[in-house]
Amino acid sequence: MTTNFKRVIVSYGSQSGNAQRLARALIETHFSTTITLELVALNDLAPETIGSNDLLLVISSTFGDGEPPANAEDFIQKLQHCQTLSNFEYAVFGLGDVAYPRFCQFGKALDAALAQAGAIRVINRVDADTNYQQFFKQWLTTIDALLAGDTEIGLSLTLQVTPYSEHQPHLASISSVDKLNTGESTVYQIDIDISGSGMHYRAGDLLYVLSDDDQMLLRQLANWFADDRAISAFANKELRLLNKALLRTIARKSGCTALKNNLKQSNKDQLAEYLYPRDLLDVLKDQSSEQVANERFISIDDLADALSTRSPRVYSIASCGLMHPDQVSLCIREVAYEFANRKHFGSASHWLSNAAVGQKVKVFTRSNPEFHLADQQQTPIIMLAAGTGVAPYIGFLQQLSQQVQRGSSRNSLLFFGERYRQHDYLYQSQLQTWQEQQVLQKVITVFSRDQPQKRYVQHALLENGAQVWQLLQAGALLYVCGSRKNLEKSIDQALLQIAQTHGQRSPEQAQDYLASLYNKAVIRRDLY
Ligand SMILES: Cc1cc2nc3c(=O)[nH]c(=O)nc-3n(C[C@H](O)[C@H](O)[C@H](O)COP(=O)(O)OP(=O)(O)OC[C@H]3O[C@@H](n4cnc5c(N)ncnc54)[C@H](O)[C@@H]3O)c2cc1C
Ligand SMILES: Cc1cc2nc3c(=O)[nH]c(=O)nc-3n(C[C@H](O)[C@H](O)[C@H](O)COP(=O)(O)O)c2cc1C
Q1: Distance from Cα 280 to the centre of ligand 1, integer Å
Q2: What are phi and psi of 518, to 5 degrees?
Q3: Helices (H), 381-443
Q4: Is the CB–ligand 1 distance for residue 241 below 6 Å?
Q5: How do residues 386-430 score in pLDDT, each as one tens digit?
Q6: pLDDT of residue 292
């Protein structure tokens, strides 16, 4: 059986062009039928002209605070005032971003308004995040089947991203925790089961983790106050990344001049250096030691009021959503150090590294479009990783391995830096397998402490300058991930030198060239 549609109207609402591009792609799709296809912006579509044998396919984004894009803002009103609306069939594909509180609001409003006006929904509404390509492909397949006569298929389609956030996280569970190195600064791969969550992610996206309380630190604070009420009062509070408002309260209550002085804008570097190893207890102790040792100058309740809620910590996802839709992998270095005769642990990294299999963890994802694998399958890629900076590339390489299986290949080069080859070569066997399978053309490793002279990723980049230059000339994208302190300036310096040595640029021309790499988004960075 085939359907009786005479015409398919593809209508879009689009502010920055995504929905319009998808609408065009839809028009250019060769469906298995020969129905007439029309393309029109929502504002230019008169509802009374849609006939009962027409199929209306709407693709629209949401803008502002859940508002329609400018070229779609009149449509719902026209629909509501239309006296002679046919009972045509329709489907809505909403584009949005889960980072906004009113996710896909306009798509939802359109869908409701069309149904309210008497139109018949033939495909369930799609609520897509910025990773909409996969949903779009599935939507196209569904439309094709609908046009070929399968009138049921669209009503069983479920393509709706659930908008999780800090205030509404998903309760996932830890499926494994594995050590990736034997070095003194331990790195773990942590796999998190997200099945049934409605989360969708791409290689390069980010996972936010809301960790549980550090019970040891809460106990130490309770001991300092000599009052166990501190444990519940400070639960879920940020006890490590201390903000200026809190420090101002502490400085005011303690009357200590040193902290007050550090809080001046002109002393911001000094303050950062002071805070780097310290948690709340260290700061409290420092203030009281300026007066009478252990004097408690602030009450538990006043301090609890001044403390903010613990912030989620963000991690590069080390897996590919196409290959592992039900799982997110992370590659995490545990923050653990001794300071002032006390062990200190990073809130999230320590909690995750010590999590038991099956333990629940509150998470949400965020799309990171600047750090996605280039869509054009021929685009070469250069990946620079320091330590856990390799995480997103594990996702990229999983995605590339799927592309290689389908017969496509691209030039890919990975620079990986760590401390010791013997202890810290993260994902060594996996990276070697990918090389054997031609998923990855080459891995260039550099281990800083394996020789008397320290060597880092930027040194390896320079040594391979000719190849890097050649790849950049061939249109490569260059990804940089890892420590901001180690990579931010040094990679720029190496690229300037490469442009001079291998591109015969003068120092000024090299500066312009580097600026153009940033302007054209050839360089993509995730630094922390
Ligand atoms: C986009 C992005 C992606 C990221 N991806 C990853 C990733 O893939 N893997 C990963 O491991 N991390 C990643 N991070 C870093 C991560 O978000 C956390 O900052 C990190 O895990 C520490 O969080 P925590 O809660 O364990 O520690 P916190 O409780 O936040 O404590 C960290 C603080 O402890 C102090 N500190 C840390 N080490 C020492 C030390 N040796 N001596 C003294 N003081 C110290 C510093 O003040 C530091 O700011 C990423 C960050 C960003 C922004
Ligand atoms: C300024 C701005 C506001 C946005 N507001 C929302 C919003 O309220 N809800 C939502 O789901 N998405 C929102 N988005 C995300 C867009 O809907 C998303 O980027 C979409 O892919 C854009 O498609 P378009 O290019 O067709 O307009 C916003 C994006 C921007 C840049």
Answers
A1: 17
A2: -75, -45
A3: 391-405, 421-424, 428-436
A4: yes
A5: 999 999 999 999 999 999 999 988 999 999 999 999 999 999 999
A6: 53
**What is the model's pLDDT at position 3?**
67
Distance 485 CA to ligand 1 centre (A): 12
Do residues 242 and 250 lie in contact, with contact meaning Cβ atoms separated by under 8 Å?
no
Q: How far is the CA of 333 from the centre of ligand 1 (A)?
A: 8
Please answer whether residues 478 and 415 qualify as being in contact, where contact means their C-beta atoms are separated by less than 8 angstroms. Answer: no
For ligand 2, is residue 14 a contact (CB within 6 Å)?
yes
Radius of gyration of the CA atoms of the chain, in A: 28
CATH architecture of 172-209+319-366: Beta Barrel (2.40)
**CB-based contact 279:313 (threshold 8 Å):** no
Domains 7-156 and 373-527 share a fold: yes
Q: Is 366 in the pocket of ligand 1 (CB under 6 A)?
A: no
H or E element, residue 170: strand 170-179
**Using one digit for the tens of pLDDT, what is the confidence trace for 156-176?**
999 999 999 999 999 999 999
Pocket test for ligand 2, best of 10, 15, 18 (most atoms within 8 A of CB): 15
Confidence of residue 1 (pLDDT cuts 50, 70, 90): very low
528 Cα–ligand 1 center, Å? 8
333 Cβ below 6 A of ligand 1: yes
- Enter the tokens of residue 490: 């040094």
Considering only CA atoms, which residue is closest to atom 4 of ligand 1? 315
User: CATH classification of 373-527, choosing from 3.40.50.80, 3.40.50.12100, 2.40.160.20, 3.30.1240.10?
Assistant: 3.40.50.80
In DSSP notation, 260-326 reads HHHTSGGGHHHHHHHHTT--HHHHHHHHHHHSSTT---S-HHHHHHHSPBPPPEEEEB-S-TTT-TT
Instruction: Round the average pLDDT of the chain to a whole number and report it.
Output: 95
Chain mean position to CA 227: 41
Q: Which CATH superfamily is domain 7-156 in?
A: Flavodoxin domain (3.40.50.360)
Q: Does ligand 1 come within 6 angstroms of the Cβ of 347? A: yes
Q: Which two tokens stand for residue 234?
A: 């400070």
What is the distance of C-alpha 5 from the center of its chain? Answer: 41
Site to substitute for ligand 2 among 10, 21, 95, most atoms within 8 A of C-beta: 95
Ligand 1 center to 23 CA (angstroms): 42
User: Hey, where are the domains in the chain?
Assistant: 7-156, 172-209+319-366, 215-306, 373-527
CB distance 276 to ligand 1 below 6 Å? yes
- pLDDT tens-digit map of 25-80: 999 987 777 788 999 999 999 999 999 999 999 999 999 999 999 999 999 999 99
Instruction: For ligand 2, say whether the CB of 60 is within 6 Å of any of its atoms.
Output: no
